[in-house]
Amino acid sequence: MADGTDQKSSNQMWGGRFASGPSAIMEEINASIGFDKKLYAQDIRGSMAHATMLASKGIISPDDKDKIIEGLNTILSEIEAGTFEFSRKLEDIHMNIEARLATLIGTAAGRLHTARSRNDQVALDFRLWVKEELQKTEGMLTALIAAFLDRAEENADTVMPGFTHLQTAQPVTFGHHCMAYVEMFGRDRARVRHAIEHLDESPIGAAALAGTGYPIDRHMTAKALGFREPTRNSIDTVSDRDFALEFLSIASICATHLSRLAEEIVIWSTPQFGFIRLSDAFSTGSSIMPQKKNPDAAELVRAKTGRINGSLVALLTVMKGLPLAYSKDMQEDKEQVFDAAESLELAIAAMTGMIRDLEVRKDRMRAAAGSGYSTATDLADWLVREAGLPFRDAHHVTGNAVALAEKKGCDLADLSLKELQAIHPDITKGVFDVLSVEASVASRTSFGGTAPSEVKKQIAWWRGRN
Ligand code: ARG
């Protein structure tokens, strides 16, 4: 037929009531094998645990169970060797594996699907996959945090300008700036750990949506598959994709952190800033301008965030109108998660490499730290502390000093005592002790502040927390 309808064969798994097969377009919109083949290992593991439980409860014979396990092992090696033939007619990974099992072991294969449905099967496979991905993400974040801790330690007293509005604000240390990212990625890692705990319930045995009348043992399968316990409501179990949404939310927040860092790397590596030099391993040249070294890896990390955020919005939108329980819409969950996971892994790995490799240009940071009247707040604080001025008056006096320095084209520390005293008579030569960037930084000893002594304490605290 013109639309490619295949009238010949109905589906061997569910085709009992169908006289003809699906149209080619139906097959194309329906099939998920193109992407859910990624779940083969989880699917096989789940089926083995299910078959073992069915046999232990006397629902299938030990002999059938043995055949099923042996057949599944064969299929696992076929897939891993690349010799397994995936068929789009068989829709998804679950039916591809079951059909192959039937070819390999005959009728015993038909007993595997007792007391389960593809609805709880896919929920199981996907949960197992997301759990493993979260565990991987946790390890990658730990490596990124470790890279930052090392850089922070080396640079606990490397002075740089701190910014607000990307305008020079007050001097800080590069170590302190690195530790800001340790806090961010530490929160991401805590979210990952929490999500692992959250999803750690086994869906298998919820069946289509209502549970089953067979005397199954869901605690047994949960344990065999490494879950804490089985889920508690069969309807929720087959309609829940919170674990995927949580993964994508966490990935989006983490990608947002990576993107902010990427933006800083792009800015810092410009000749104008020149705070860092990227290694050759994480930059590229220009095909026309020989002088250029481009921060492509950082730019791509920044861009991956768009994809990851897009995946979160896509899946939220898929889920928002779905009545309980399972609907086929939910098949659209996997590609979003797979794509976001791949992007996030790449982004974390690239960022870890860049942080480990980058050269810190201390001289450039130091020079910039002193420019822009970055110690003006220190002058105001000195006037409060030593001359007893109210802070608002001290702020005004300091403003006059900045205006004079600006007029003369020099730093605050370059103004003479005479010039300062003309602005306020109570200023003494002691003021020069606080006008240097090193003194400014060393004075910020409040908990979580930028003083090298404080930064070192925070590094030690994080080192004890991996
Ligand atoms: N391929 C389907 C998915 O990914 C598997 C579940 C199908 N269940 C069903 N009742 N059609 O969601």
Percentage beta strand? under 5%
Q: Helix proportion of residues, in percent?
A: 55-70%
Main sheet overview: 2 strands, antiparallel
Topology order in helix (H) and strand (E) letters? HHHHHHEEHEHEHHEHHEHHHHHH
Q: Estimate the global geometry from the Cα principal axes.
A: elongated
- Class inferred from helices and paired strands: mainly alpha
Fold and architecture overview:
With 466 residues, this protein is mainly alpha-helical. It contains 18 helices and six strands. Strand 3 (201-202), helix 8 (218-224) and strand 4 (229-230) form a beta-alpha-beta unit. The chain is elongated, with a radius of gyration of 31 Å. It binds arginine. The site of arginine (ARG) has 10 residues, from helix 6. Arginine binds at residues 32, 36, 92, 118-119, 122, 326, 328, 330-331.
What is the fold's blueprint, element by element?
Blueprint: H1 24-30, H2 33-36, H3 40-56, H4 62-81, H5 93-105, H6 118-154, E1 159-164, E2 167-173, H7 174-198, E3 201-202, H8 218-224, E4 229-230, H9 234-239, H10 242-268, E5 276-277, H11 296-319, H12 333-357, E6 359-360, H13 362-370, H14 376-387, H15 391-408, H16 417-423, H17 437-443, H18 452-463
Parallel strand pairs: 3-4
Antiparallel strand pairs: 1-2, 5-6
Helix pairs in contact: 3-4, 3-6, 3-8, 4-5, 6-7, 6-12, 6-18, 7-10, 7-18, 10-11, 10-12, 11-12, 14-15
Bound molecules: arginine.
Residues 32, 36, 92, 118-119, 122, 326, 328, 330-331 line the site of arginine (ARG).
